[in-house]
Specification:
This protein is mostly beta strands. The protein has two domains: 31-134, Immunoglobulin-like; 140-250, Immunoglobulins (Immunoglobulin-like), CATH 2.60.40. It is 11% helix and 49% strand. The protein contains two helices and 19 strands. The strands form four sheets. Strands 1, 3, 5, 8 and 9 form a five-stranded mixed beta sheet that branches. Strands 10-11-13-16-15 form a five-stranded antiparallel beta sheet, with no helix packed on it. Strands 12, 14, 17, 18 and 19 form a five-stranded mixed beta sheet that branches. A hairpin with a 2-residue loop joins strand 10 (146-149) and strand 11.
């Protein structure tokens, strides 16, 4: 199975190629002159993540002299979905396109384009939704899915550095949380010890505090084999039984 970093790159490439394909197709089309929306942009303003999805309905009118069919509505983003009138829209009649945005884990400003294809894909209309997502503090299990014990939650249980060349330096970010009502001192013990692993950002956590740190690995020249290192968290002086695994492959 390819390393996680390679899978992410492959997924991003597929999304980019799909978007590029749709863009090229759209460029070969023309904006519809007879299928007209009451507005092109809707600003949701400030929305709250904890309230869930928001939707807005755009009204379209057939200004032409023949029926129009909406063939597809594309947003190219899993966070934005749509529903629309499926029946042919007669001249002078109205159709609707409802666009829904999911703000889950998407804090801050957003702006999403939606393309409405009509006339067997020969014409299109562009819509936009935008707004600002006010985040909320998720339950610790949602943001830090791995419970290691003694109130310690981590965002990862495997630090996968992937393929490394001699002398190459890579960094992996680790998010961690103290889900207790007491302060927490967090340390680590490596087995086997490896001086080429460094970590930055470690500190004493306050009650219910969440933070992050960076693990870096600088590949030495004298390792002719792949490595598997176990890093045991030490919470308030007590070594936990479950280790974090560090893996990499030597090129």
């Amino acid at each position: 199975m390819p390393p996680l970093s390679n899978l992410i790159i492959m997924k991003q490439l597929v999304i980019f190629l799909l978007y590029l394909f749709c863009y090229v197709i759209t460029c070969a089309q023309e904006p519809s002159k007879v299928f007209v929306s009451n507005e092109r942009i809707h600003d949701f303003g400030k929305i709250f993540e904890e309230n869930g999805k928001v939707s807005y309905t755009f009204n379209f009118y057939n200004k032409g002299d023949k029926p129009i069919v909406i063939n597809d509505v594309s947003a190219w983003c899993g966070c934005t979905t749509s529903s629309y009138t499926k029946k042919p829209v007669l001249p002078g009649k109205k159709a609707i396109v409802t666009v829904t945005y999911n703000p889950y884990n998407r804090p801050g400003s957003f702006s999403k384009e939606v393309v409405v294809l009509t006339e067997s894909g020969k014409s299109y209309s562009r819509l936009w939704i935008k707004g600002y997502v006010v985040p909320y503090l998720h339950p610790v299990e949602e943001d830090y899915p791995y419970e290691f014990g003694d109130g310690l939650y981590l965002g990862l249980k495997i630090l996968a550095f992937g393929s490394l060349r001699k002398g190459e330096l890579k960094t992996v970010e680790l998010r961690y949380a103290n889900d207790t009502d007491q302060s927490m001192t967090l340390e680590f013990k490596m087995e086997p010890y490896d001086p080429y692993i460094k970590f930055l950002g470690l500190k004493k956590l306050k009650a219910k505090e969440r933070s992050k740190m960076s693990f870096s690995y600088s590949t030495p020249n004298n390792y002719p084999f792949d490595r598997l290192i176990k890093i045991y968290p030490i919470v308030n002086g007590r070594c936990l039984k479950t280790p974090i695994l560090v893996t990499f492959t030597k090129i």
